[in-house]
């Protein structure tokens, strides 16, 4: 058992709450500092998947030409606001560098190490009853409209095989056996049996928080205005007044960027705004997450209805939302599942903290060891949260992390 410390975790999403739970299990006195409601940020609006080797870094060999086609297509999945270009351009340069084969393979290796154990770790964190209530280990499916795999597809297959990822290539007939409602335009697919989804992302975070609260974790409803390290610990200046802690973990999503800047650190985080629609009453269309790989959108069956996620919009976090994205996502849904009836649609927009190499930032401030970062998970917060929390717990305890933390260091 590590020496007990007073720890503040800034951020009440799946990453922050996972960190709080693991730290509390080691005997630390933990407070989650969250200005809004626990689990109601990007953790509420995500695609609800967890993956075991199926996810790739956003940047890949040839990504520049694919991104240019997407940006030129008004109905495509990527939008870059001109006003955000000066801030996003350096990030994009690093993003394109990650598309070089060596960098891409290294990023995938690190993502796989972080994400692959997530289901086992969640089972340990939640216990068997809650895990079975929330998790659906039905696998995940990626589908394509073209018949022949590309050179990149073959390269991805080889990389996954190298890392022991289980997957099965499916023909059009096999796709229909697995998911009969899919459009017949899909000619091939890949099935990942060790991936799956949660029935409610919010219920996942709330379940983790309940476990943490039972171990004494408290919630401070406040906005953090400043983080002030000293020789005696770290003081948080908040909207509810100052509070001092031995250690602070910054797991505040895109807000981590501003907090880091005030501490003299520049985090390579882009404001990648994601949109989703959820269609209540649309049940039974599919039984697992289905990703249209070429169009870059995902359909996931949730307790609340069918959710479609698939927009990457690079714009300021507080910019007005684009109402056209709702209609675009409805069109995506109909192309994948042509027989569904859409009678009601709930839409959402949130800000993903995305890094150029798709690797989260996990580690200590270079000058203040009592300040740690756990942010930048982009599209993969559910998958990466448990091992991120494990690494943070190891660092707070002064232990060597159970997997190398080098790929996730501040950069």
Characterise this structure:
- The protein is an alpha/beta fold and 411 residues long.
- Helices cover 35% and strands 26% of the residues.
- The strands form 4 sheets. Strands 4, 6, 7, 8, 15, 16, 17, 18, 19 and 20 form a 10-stranded mixed beta sheet that branches. A 6-stranded mixed beta sheet has the order 10-2-1-14-22-21, covered by helices on one side. Strands 3-9-5 form a 3-stranded antiparallel beta sheet.
- Helix 1 packs parallel to helix 13 and helix 6 crosses helix 13.
- It is globular and about 65 Å long.
Give descriptors for this structure.
6-stranded mixed sheet, 10-stranded mixed sheet, globular, 22 strands, alpha/beta, 411 residues, 26% strand
Give a quick precis of the structure.
With 411 residues, the protein is of the alpha/beta class. Helix content is 35%, strand content 26%. The chain has helices at 14-25, 42-45, 63-72, 85-98, 101-115, 118-126, 128-134, 151-162, 172-178, 201-214, 255-262, 324-336, 381-397; strands at 6-10, 29-34, 49-50, 78-80, 135-136, 140-144, 168-171, 188-192, 196-198, 218-221, 224-230, 233-238, 241-245, 247-250, 270-279, 290-292, 297-302, 305-309, 312-314, 346-354, 361-364, 371-375.
Globular, elongated, flat, extended or rod-shaped: what is the shape? globular
Helix content: 25-40%
Q: Could you tell me the number of beta strands? A: 22
Task: Provide a count of the helices.
Answer: 13
- Low-pLDDT stretches: none
Our measurement of the CA-to-CA distance between the termini, rounded to an integer number of angstroms, reads 31 Å
Mean pLDDT: 94
Give the strand content: 25-35%
The largest pleated sheet is described as: 10 strands, mixed
Rg estimate, integer Å? 21 Å
